[in-house]
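Fold this complex.
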Amino acid sequence: MSNALRTIRGREHLTGWLLLLPALMLLALVFAYPILRAFWLSLFIENLGTNLEPVFTGLGNYVRMVGDGRFWQSLWITTIFTVIAVTIELVLGMAIALVLNESFRGRGLARTIAILPWALPTALIALSWQWIFNGEFGVWNDILLRLGILQEPINWLGEPGLALASTIAADIWKTTSFVAILLLAGLQSISEDLYEAHAIDGATPWQSFRQITLPMVMPQILIAVLFRFAQSFGIFDLVQVMTGGGPAGSTEVVSVYIYATVMRYLDFGYGAALVVITFLILVAVVAIAAFLLSKAQNRTEGV
Amino acid sequence: MAPSTPVVTKPSPTQEGVNWKPVLLGITVFLVAIFSLAPILWQLLTSIKTNADISRIPNVYFPREFTLEHYIQLFDRRPFLRYVLNSAFVAIVSTLLCLGLGSPAAYALARLRLKGEQLILGLVLIVTLFPYILLFLGLLEIVQILGLGNNYLALIIPYTAINLPLTILVMRSFFQQLPRDLEDAAKVDGYNTVQMLWQIVLPTTIPALVTTGILAFIFAWNEFIFALTFMTRETMKTIPVAAAQIGGATLFEIPYGPIAAATVLGTLPLVLLVLFFQRKIVQGLTAGAVKG
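Structure:
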């Protein structure tokens, strides 16, 4: 009896691994291999100077990176982009989630409309926003001129600071809905009784938001931040299409710099080193966030 | 769970006479809708305006004439139908492959109590956070070595892979909710695991497969960097890349109308998907992100 059971369990295990194997192999090919390969490739110089032949340089590419002002600038721009975009998306996403959590007629339709931006291709959305911020015929200028806020049209994508702000605005439009969807799921799991009890105790809406809503959706907030941080830190499509990193490199985020290093300058070894560093920064931040997440989850489960 | 005491409460949110809440709510819902729709509607409007109206200052919000010339131009001067078919083919094939590879894996992780299950799940979750820029260099090498440049496989393989983590996470959470009795009964009847999966479990998970498939299709249709890098021949391009390159093709006059038309056509399939499957998309996204 127990022997027969053991063979069944054994066969089940074998089947399990057979079911898993194809997926794991594909994941290894598309995710693990390129990353590991980048670590290896980053130890070589492979560019037009070496006729695209790999020449071993040890940590030479990393030493070069320390003195590469363009890299540091791109890292700085990416950080600004990420911090501003994710912060605003979180606040706005929470506001939208709170609205969509209320009961009103047409709520289903409102939710459908609200998730639309998330579902659309980023490259095409970048084209839409490029057109909105167009310096000559753009509708954003037109609105501001009509409202009397501007006296002269502005070339939004032509001025360094404004171009960065414009790409951030487009990113906020595109991804706030993702944050709102995640937070809405969290809000829906909060029981109405909690608020009623709190209100009977004389709490104001703001107090219940601070003392009930925020702690209860903290896991969803952290997950949203985690996803949005990673996506925003690696943002490529939006910036590449909207500004191509310009003007004067003012919107050149790390991904755009890496892409140019590899595809335009054909500097494969250095590009690989840039990939490695970006990967390590990402892993470090994600590890910290995951730690905070597990702590937050423990806390909510304790309630 | 909570000991709910039947308190007689009347929902009276305001002490003053006028109830402001519905009014405020209405306004904010309206703002959310405008915020979400305006950029797309503006692009739609641009795509059917005449060139004279497009470049008129101040802007024309309510044009007197409409035209389809920008759409006609897209199909006339470029292989636009080909772009659409490329996008559709790559997205559909990779979605099916992803479901075919991902669901068995998800089942194994949900039910078969393998050693190292937690580790695999953790890795799968982390992988969803990788931006594609970290992968394109290594994939470019593979594509070059295998001679897959300008071949559909150069997109189908990575698209299948990038959707696997989500598929595994979502399908796993569906399998976990499935009652075990069904499978136990099948085992008693002498089915082996694969037969049972195919004949008993699969039919019950079709709604979950649809949910996951929609998400995978969206991600594949929207992907940009791999398509940009691996497909350089005009007839192999997908919509996002082809549309993004319309402006770069001419030096003097940027064809705003055709760009807008291309945006509308490229987003239309996704708008329809969202309209019909809003609930499923939300369900899948939250299951993939939160329960993982």
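The first strand of chain A starts at residue 44 and ends at 45.
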